[in-house]
Structures are given as structure tokens and as C-alpha cells.
Specification:
mainly alpha
Length: 103
């Protein structure tokens, strides 16, 4: 059952990479990216993080699609020694990516 759930989440996240919802504004992206990476750095359980973001952004499907991809990327990276720098780099990466995809 656990493997089935992981496979389903992997497919969902992979689809999000391809079908990321264009945003009208990038104002929420830096805070979202910082929240994702800092949660990752404290080894927050990925399932709990997905559930928290799903609840938080239930009315913002556009941001939820971005959060799903951010979570996937954050968990693919090792935790850096300089955590502050890692958060800033993650925020910059996602801010740049958002600017390129704004409606």
C-alpha cells in the first residue's frame, strides 16, 4: 500500500512539472519556496508537508501546483551546510522560474 501511495504521488508530482499552472503574479513564490526548503531542512516528513500545503492552498490551485514541484525538488537535494544560503538560492531559483512563466 505504501508503495502504491508513493507511486501515485510521484506521478502527480511529475505531471505537475509538465503542467505547472501559470501564475498572474510571483509575489507569493519567494515565501512559498522558503517555507518548502526550511521544512525540508528540518526533515519535515514529506507526506505531512504535502498534506499541509494541500490544506493551506486548497483555494489556490495555481500555488499548489508550484508547491508540489518545489517539494519534489527540495527533497531531491541534500541539506546544505549553509542552510540560510540554501534557502536564498532556492527562493531565487523559483522566483526566476516564476518570472519566466507569468501570464
Amino acid at each position: 500500500m505504501k508503495h502504491l501511495l508513493v507511486a501515485a504521488l510521484s506521478i502527480l508530482m511529475a505531471n505537475s512539472v509538465v503542467a505547472q499552472t501559470p501564475l498572474e503574479s510571483c509575489e507569493d513564490i519567494p515565501a512559498l519556496a522558503a517555507d518548502v526548503m526550511t521544512s525540508r531542512q528540518v526533515s519535515y516528513d514529506i507526506m505531512l508537508m504535502i498534506n499541509r500545503f494541500t490544506d493551506t492552498y486548497a483555494d489556490r490551485i495555481d500555488l499548489l501546483s508550484w508547491a508540489q514541484v518545489m517539494i519534489d525538488m527540495a527533497y531531491a537535494q541534500p541539506i546544505a551546510t549553509d542552510r540560510v544560503q540554501q534557502v536564498e538560492e532556492f527562493k531565487a531559483l523559483w522566483s526566476d522560474r516564476c518570472v519566466k512563466n507569468v501570464k
